[in-house]
Amino acid sequence: MQISDNWIDIAYLISAVLFVLGIKGLTKPKTAVRGNLLAAAGMGVACVITLLHRDIVTYEIIIAGVIVGGVIGAILAKKVQMTAMPQLVALLNGFGGGASFAVAAAEFFRGGHPDMVGIIATGAAVLIGAVTLTGSLVAFAKLQELIDGKPMGFPGMKVVNAILLIGSVLAIAYLVANPGTPTVFWALAIAAAVLGLLLVLPIGGADMPVVIALLNSYSGLAASAAGFVMGNSALIVTGSLVGASGLILTQIMCKAMNRSLTNVLFGVMAEAGEAMDQDEVYEGKIKSTSAEEVAMVLETAQRVVIVPGFGLAMAQAQHAVRDLADTMEANGTEVEYAIHPVAGRMPGHMNVLLAEAEVPYDKLKDMDTINPTFEQTDVAIVLGANDVTNPLAREDKGSPIYGMPILNVDKARTVVVVKRSLSPGFAGLPNPLFAKDNTLMLFGDGKGAVVDITTALKEG
Amino acid sequence: MDFVSQLTLFVLAIFLGVELITKVPPTLHTPLMSGSNAISGITLVGALIAAGSDAGLLINVLGFIAVVLATINVIGGFMVTNRMLAMFKRK
């Protein structure tokens, strides 16, 4: 069966509307599941109607591809651990870029009568698509610890990147003048693929949340460019929605880490201020405590705020934390969670990890909401978080992290920090919070310590 | 569709995207990213046309690769987003 292009375009419009309604659903946890289903329905409409397109004459290859991709996708979605979500999103970003690349390539080799706009769009889709594909694979490998998370590079790397980028743009210009030159096309593809590798290799593990968000944006832009190539409204609209989403999340992450996007992209770390002597900060001021003592403090507390960091998730302690919170709540204590934007390894990651442990989402408070409440908080429990609680970011103008938004846990009446040792976080700085008069350090394994506190609290 | 109307769509959709996405709370940012992975699998429609055309082997091979990758995004993206959102739903 074949239908006219008008009907196909109207169906694409319907699916674009469903995508918009789907994202709108994601603005509230209550409507989010329905939103996701609406978006999926939009995808269904777009795919089914495309199958009726007059250019499609054979279905074998389509069916084979859908089965292979569907099985892989379903397995990934079912098996992935919530802690590994950043890796999965990195991988999916890469596949999105790869798909746009392949679609643009197919369109290029089909020939036809491409105009200047068509060729430029093809070039853009190939360039962005290939960069997204290889860049995301590097991000995936770093997050999965297949390769070292440390920044990697060689002298002159930036020059090489600049040459690759300029060369790619020149290749696109050449294709505009001579549309049918496959060698130049493949040269462009290879240059872009290498560029993707070299762009992400020098970025350190701590900056990965920014990179994933940015590659998310690229994958959308690549889809949009593919839409320009094919004159397909569904791809253009959807790709730009995703592109905007990734850009906003990139911005949020950069702000939360006090890093400019250029610094992240070029692997520039903040200037180390005058070296702070760890001993000077900590000496004689650290008060070590025990689980029983913490339980005694918690017993009389009216309000407790738990500050989770990724260390907590690495120790798989989310369920233990929820047990502790349940015990405190049974005691009549109000318990909330303070979530810093970079608490996890990607935007919103910590919220998902706690939701998995059945922590109600309305207890998860973002930084701006929770910060004014620390002064009325009896106990703040810091679990596996470090730099995001460092008062130097607020007070010491000479500090490399000065200006980074932090959780003001030091304003709570008592601060309990659960940590293995006094070792510094990603920023490599001592944390004066640990030496404050109102801070108690509970040294030990995060999960074990939380379980011990809960037990002591139940017995007490 | 001519270039100017394409560009119009693109620019307006970016503005719409910015307005929409800024309203998504931080709690849902991870599902937002996996969900947008799924939505960017819309490239599948282009992939279907390439894979199902009779324009030659190279086109079909590229189309097949694109169909596989885009389907992983669509199926994997929507399913994993659903899995996460279900955890937020229960009280």
UniProtKB/TrEMBL annotation, chain B:
Top-rank taxon, per record: Bacteria
GO biological process entries: NADPH regeneration
InterPro entries: NADP_transhyd_a_C
Stretches assigned to the NAD(P) transhydrogenase alpha subunit C-terminal domain: 6-90
Transmembrane segments: 6-22, 57-81
GO cellular component: plasma membrane
Protein's membrane topology: Multi-pass membrane protein
Any one GO MF annotation of this record: NADP binding
Compartments, as annotated in UniProt: Cell inner membrane
UniProt keywords, alphabetically: Cell inner membrane, Cell membrane, Membrane, NAD, NADP, Translocase, Transmembrane, Transmembrane helix
Main location per the UniProt record: membrane
Function, in words: The transhydrogenation between NADH and NADP is coupled to respiration and ATP hydrolysis and functions as a proton pump across the membrane.
Protein name (Swiss-Prot/TrEMBL): proton-translocating NAD(P)(+) transhydrogenase
